[in-house]
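Hi,

Apologies if this is the wrong queue. I'm a grad student, and the batch job for Putative ribonucleotide transport ATP-binding protein mkl from Pseudonocardia hydrocarbonoxydans produced an output file that my downstream script rejects. I'm not sure whether the problem is my script or the file. Here is the sequence I used:
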Amino acid sequence: MAGVEVQVEGLSKSFGRANIWSDVSLTLPPGEVSVLLGPSGTGKSVFLKTLIGLLKPEKGSIVINDTDLVKCSESRLYEIRKLFGVLFQDGALFGSMNLFDNIAFPLREHTKKSEAQIKDIVAEKMHLVGLTGDEKKLPGEISGGMRKRAGLARALVLDPEIILFDEPDSGLDPVRTAYLNQLIIDLNAQTDATFLIVTHDINTAQTVPDNIGMLYRKHLAMFGPREVLLTSEEPVVSQFLNGRRQGPIGMSEEKDTAQAQREMAEAGELAGLPEMKPQLEVSAGMPERKAVGRRRDRVQQMLHTLPPAAQEAIRRSYAAEPAMAGAGAPLPRRGLLGGPGGAADTDVFDRPGLQSPPPGPGRHRPQG
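Support response: The file is valid. Your script probably expects a header line. Output copied below for reference.
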C-alpha cells in the first residue's frame, strides 16, 4: 500500500503582523520522496509544523484521507497525526533515556502493545537504521549521525504513512549526509511511505527526491518533478543551486531588485546550472521503489505541460527504459562511482562494519 497523498491548497501562515508565506499550494504524491528547498528564514520548518497540525494557518486547507486538518476536530486531528512520523533536526531524543527507551517511547505512549511486542518492534527499527547493539547507549554517548538515525528509528515505530524530515543533514559532514541520503531512499523502498524532506543541502536536493519545491519571497516559487527545478533558469534557482553570492538572495533577506540585477549582469559568466546528477537508486539487495513506476506514469501524463528543458531531461532519464512508451523494462544499474559495478566502499557512517545501508553497485539511476 502506497503512502498517503497530502493536498495543500492556498495555505498562509503569519506570526502577528509578520507574514511567513502565503497561498502555498502543492500535492505530495503518495509514496514518493519530495524535497522542500529555500533560503534560510523562509519558513520551511514552519511549513512542516503546520502540515502536521502543530501550528494553525490563517487560510487554506491540508487534506489527508478526505479530512481537512485545518478545520477538523481535535480528536480527528489526533487520529490523523498517527499517520505521521517526524525526524527533527537534532533527533529530539530524551537525554536521560537510552536509545531503546527513546525509540520505544511512542509505542508506550500511543499503543497498548506488550513489552515483548515493543521489544520486537524497536529491534526491527534499530536494525533498519543500523543501530543494532546500541540499545543501552545514552544520546550524549553517541555521534550526531547516530542520534539522527535513532530519531529516525523512533519516527518509524508506529509505521507512519507520511514521514517528515526537518533538515536531516544538519550538523553532518558530507560523507555521513551521503549515507543518510542512501538510507532515506532504502527506507522509502521498504516502507512505500510518503516522504517530505526540508533541506539546505544541494547534493541532497539533486540526488534524492522525485519532486522538488522551493520557498522564496514568502510564497512557493515552484513545486513539481525534480527535473523542473533542476533545469530552471530562474535566477534564484541558479544562485541557490550554485551556492554563490550573486543573485536575488541576500545575507539576511532578499535583495532589492536593482542590486540583484546589477550583480547578475556583473557575473554573467557565472550564469547557468550545475550539471544534473543522477537520482539515487536503492542499495543492492533492497526491494525496488514502487514509487518509481508510479512517478513515471504520472510524469508521462503531465510531460506536455512541463517546460521544454524539463521535458528533455525527463526523456533522457527514461531513454533506456521502454516503460516510457508503455513497456516496463528495468532501469540499467550503475555503480557508486559511475562504472558498471562501482568500487567497494566501507560504510563509514559511524563505525566500521555497519550494515545499513549496504555498500555496492546499483545506487544510481542513469543521468537525466
